[in-house]
TrEMBL record:
GO CC terms in record: mitochondrial membrane
Listed name of the protein: NADH-ubiquinone oxidoreductase chain 4
Species for this entry: Palaemon serenus
Annotated TM spans: 21-47, 53-72, 84-101, 107-128, 140-161, 181-204, 211-232, 244-265, 272-292, 298-318, 330-349, 369-401, 422-443
Compartments it resides in: Mitochondrion membrane
EC number assigned by the record: 7.1.1.2
One GO process term, biological-process aspect: ATP synthesis coupled electron transport
One GO MF term: NADH dehydrogenase (ubiquinone) activity
Amino acid sequence: MLKFVLMILMMTFSFNSWLSVQLSLFLASSIFGLLSLSHFGVFQYGYGLGLDWVGYVLIFLSMWIMALVLGASESVNKLGAHKSLFLIVNLGLLLSLVMTFSCLDYLLFYICFESSLIPTMILILGWGYQPERLQAGVYLLFYTLFASLPLLISFLSLYSSGGSLVMELSMVPNLSRSLVMTWYLCSVLAFIVKLPVYLVHLWLPKAHVEAPVAGSMILAGVLLKLGGYGLVRVCPLFSGVSLGLSWVWVSLGLVGGVMVSLVCMRQGDMKALIAYSSVAHMGMVLCGLMVYSWWGLVGAVVVMVGHGLCSSGLFCLANMSYERLGSRSLWVNKGLLNFMPTLALWWFALSAGNMAAPPTLNLLGEVNLIVSIISWSGVSGVMVALLSFLSAAYTLYLFSLTQHGKYFSSVFSCCCGEVREYLVLMLHWLPLNALILVGYLLVP
């Protein structure tokens, strides 16, 4: 694992060459995928870094999305708006993500988990579009810090009581149920906010709307998955208490997903609509993780990967429309089919992925999640059906409102797209539809 950490560190010395960093990221992700599939045990453990199948999938997703981010952020490269700093910030963010998904110590996990906040803040504040990015940065900072301090206290208490913070070796002592429940809530709060779950999700739409395309793609593609990964690592410590509270999390995930889906139907901002749809999808992921079944775990990981590719591609498409029309409003971005017909195909392909239509990876994950949730409680099937219906409804709302209708007369000519943009969209769509054919590789 350290060889890939060193490779990312070496990329920072070539920050003056945009193309070399982008090609190096594609090379690193290719090598990581090939070596992991053929010789998985060779670099599984070493110097406090380890790798299991969940970490492998998320690290591979992080490297792939980061390479696509540089392809979609060509405007930063052309304008020369501190492009060296932009590359360094993105590589620093990738390094913190790789460390988070591979470390075996809870304290190192916490440090890397929180260190991803700093590059994200720099991206939003430095390359955001509007003055409101300051408010978005404050929301992101305070939501995350408010929830992360109890997690640090929880890990220090764990070390004080057990003498170890190594994953799979740490144990929670026998205490009263009220104390263990308080300890459990302090431990999972940071991941619930990062996921994010309904009621603590307000930072996400603000961060997405004000972030540049790089920030939106990384937030949707990888950073939301930190919450699910943290729940996978921490919840087994409190399995007794967590099993008793499964009904709370499943109810919150399903009801919150339905509420957010209704909010999506009333959105007038493209990026805000895609951001709120992420909250609805992560609600399903929370349900799958909290029912403690193999179907739920596999379904949650598959949905996280599929959502990362699909949502990142949708933000990339929204940015292409924004660069041409200068607005994110759904009422301005109407009739795109008339003057950008080729991009309409990509809107349809990625919208189909967002509503979990076959043959996308989202379909495989949502089938697993639906099976796990209904097996846990048949009554929850009503909310699952409603959530699936609304997911298709707001995705069709986004597609139909942007592609059809009468466009503004001020738009008289427009570039339909560049080869670079089509390549970035293809590299989102191809894994999203091809990975369902090799879905067995996602299971050890």
